[in-house]
User: What shape does this take?
Amino acid sequence: MSVMTANRTKRRQTKSGGKTPSQNNMRKAIITQRRYSEEANAIADKVSAVTRARHAKWLVSRQFVLDQDNVDSSLSDQARYCDSVIGSERERITRNQRLLLECESARVKDKRQKQAQRQRVHAAVVQEVLAFTKASMEKQLLTMTPTQLFGRFPDFSYFADIAYSPSLGISKLSVLTTNDAMLKSEILSLVGNAQFLARLHREPKRVSDPNVAIGTLGIDNCVRLFPILMSKALVKWQEPAIKNIVPKLWQYMMVTANATCQRLEVAGWRYPHQGLLLGALHALGMFVVVNQYPRFFEEALINKMQAYRGQQRRDEYYACAEVSLDMSLLPELLMSLSKPLTQNIVEALSWSASSQPLRLALEEDINQVPVLERSLFGVALAQGSAFSTYDALERSQVFVDKHKPFWFANVQLAAKDLGVLSQSKMGRLQLSSS
Assistant: This one.
């Protein structure tokens, strides 16, 4: 972490009250407070980097689909836009069947490749397109506003300012539904969703007034729901090229949000639902990278095609016609661009004195501040995102078991707390039926 970043973080801690004695006690309730040797810390850092890279590859891989046991289907658009979901692990094809299918596909593909030279040209073109894609995304995305990145952007600043206050009422929440047509549509849709309302022990209603909908759901539930519903429209569920990635990415956000909320609740924080907003904001950089990748790849392909034509490189020019969307670069971009993009989004938001601790937590995560040096919110977010990554990989049986102690030691999460998180349905939003 740079000196400027450290100074900026220190100023923010001072401005927001820093770590008050009560918050310090809460932090102690959710961390192991173990000090490790330099060698152990180095191993933990290496394991964390490897695990994050493995998770990024898992998100992009078509080999793995999302386990539906832990999905909150009422808050996900997977069934609407993506491939038919697999209800249980037993419905998957076996690993051996998958390997046989891949081998057969590769053999057929090889037979269709008539010339070795044609293969080499095609591979070279793909690499040039990928290089151009990477350069373009790194140059352009980091200069764009949240509205330019997503096409629209919800008012997270207003929500963070008013949601966690004893004076919160329907009138304040209705400002968001008035100014955000998509959020209004989502709220009205939930009030008419029998499956969702059964969780609240209420009957579905056909209403057109968002104030009535907020009253039906309850203010407390709306505080939990709004960050999730505001984020829902920021994912390109309908984009065919990423339909295998979006459900996994959405579930990563949901589990991170719920686990962060749970850690704040265990700590005894009076507004643990702030963890839901933290989890949603934490994932926005990843949303941008996945959303924008197909467009930038297509633009890169067109650019290279025009360049080959101008340079009279006929073989490369005609090879472009056979190039399809290549996702091999996406895990690397998720690793390198997500945090800087989240940082830009955080800086673009307006933060009041009451919401400054949320900003500090996000910046601690972006700057990879050691967990023992983080604020209460920073610790909770670190543990929530670490659990979410572990949960996703473990459900697909690709988490390296020997890395587990180092992975969670790096975020100071005790084994008993991991057990509680693992036994809970962290992918499903907990609502109040009172």
In short: Confidence is low (pLDDT under 50) at residues 1-18, 85-91. The two ends are 46 Å apart (CA to CA). Residues 4 and 10 are 10 Å apart (CA to CA).
